[in-house]
Amino acid sequence: MVRRYLRIMSLRHAVMAALLEGEASGYDLAKGFDASVANFWMATPQQLYRELDRMRDDGLVAARLVQQERRPNKRLFSLTEEGRRELREFTARPPRPGAIRDEMMVMVQAVDAGDAEGVRAAVEERVEWARAKIARFERLQARLLDGRTEEEFLAHADRVGPYLTLMRGLEFERENQRWGEWALNVLRQRVG
Fold first, then answer.
1. One digit per residue, pLDDT tens: the chain, 192 residues?
2. 74 pairs with which residues across the strands?
3. Is the same domain home to 161 and 132?
4. Which residues pair with 64 in a beta bridge?
5. How many domains in the chain?
6. Domain containing residue 152
7. Helix/strand number for the chain, H first, E second
8. 84 in helix, strand or coil?
């Protein structure tokens, strides 16, 4: 039960951080999560909607209904003062240490006793996924910089947090690509 509570709290804080950009629907948050927060926190749209309802019940976000004529009505969420206070308290605490939990790494660990071709295919897929994410993150970086140098952006932007997390995600995926290409080379040499 404690582990589940901690997981929910991390999602809660990721949602609050995303809402710092301004009022958003659950759909907009899910889309934005995929483009930004997904660098460091994964959540399905269903998890986001459930957490938004809990946060509303806890007074951390406010929701207002927007009537739409040709589409279903939508709820827009915004941080309340209580939510901002909770986010300030969260950022004042040291984080729990992170750990890699990656099913593919277990497969790689067992490659000598398992299906080497299956592991190789999984690593190739991860490399391709990393390349695609790198391209998406670089496009997002260019959009954030909007013609400015990184130094100009960091000195004058209203918020630098999204840029900092984007750069961490970009470096993470670049490392995934580097490691994957190296591991594939090792696996090819062993098979040959």
1. 334 434 445 789 889 988 988 899 988 888 877 666 666 777 888 999 999 999 999 999 999 999 989 998 999 999 999 999 999 999 898 887 877 788 999 999 999 888 889 999 999 999 999 999 999 999 999 999 999 999 999 999 999 998 999 999 999 999 999 999 999 999 998 875
2. 66
3. yes
4. 76
5. 2
6. 103-191
7. 8, 3
8. helix
